[in-house]
Amino acid sequence: MAAAHHDHHEGQRVSRRRLIAGIGSVGLAGLLAACGRDSGSVTTSTGETVSPQATTAKDLTALFADANTCRLTADTTQGPYYFDADKIRSDIREDRAGTRLRLAIRVQDSEKCGPLSNAVVEIWHCDAAGLYSGAEAQSSGGGGVPGGAPPSGAPGGARPGSPPAGGGAPGGGNGELADLTPTDDKRYLRGAQVTNADGIVEFTTVWPGWYRGRTVHVHAMVHIGTDRVLTTQLMFDEALNSKVFAAQPYAAHTGRDTFNDNDNIYDASMLLKVTEDGDGHLGVINFGVDADRDGQ
């Protein structure tokens, strides 16, 4: 299977707050405003250029065909650990150990069933020990113990089967939690990419770990213009979770208490289609988004 695409800006930190002078907005909204004006290439105030990824390898075509094509993707809570991490990159691993995971996400208009180019897709997730960068103290569960009790306000704080904090069940909206103010300077396992002409982005990361009260998941957010048009999560088949977690560094983190069948956010539509990919795995999914915000 073809290796993940890496452009010549791979790993480069590009502050979204230095993007094109005069846009009138900051963060991801500024990036999207710049992308929407022309071919999708963004020139920063320092002369750096960020472009959408080149067309994804043909080996993904069949996988995308079976991955929830054009269905409106369930909207859910962003959780307590989201913030604009200023990381435009496809390889988000930094120093985190774990089983390599290549993620390919195709963004489509749920009504027109066509690709959406020049959208920004962000992902973020915990490491093998259940920690989130920028929020290591909070995500340790108190006392610095990885995998401890979920912090107040985390989706995992609710009883299995009850609505997540703020009522952010699939399809229930995503505005109930404020963006996090980071409490450390780590930025691993966070990144953003701009969709190409096929509506596709690719990331290289590691298989997520787990923390108490939640099943294994990756958070994702899609921005078009100044709007956050989708906030959702990606899930994994439990047989694959068990296989990955039998090896280090995951095996050192024991006592997992929440699985897909008792997670209060899990929905089958969030499952990635996963295949083996060299020494790791490839997961693909389609996001159907309400691009014109008319509820369809």
UniProtKB/TrEMBL annotation:
Keywords: Dioxygenase, Oxidoreductase. This is Dioxygenase. Residues 154-175 have a biased composition (Gly residues). InterPro entries: Intradiol_dOase_core. Residues 136-182 are annotated as: Disordered. One of its GO terms (molecular function) is ferric iron binding.
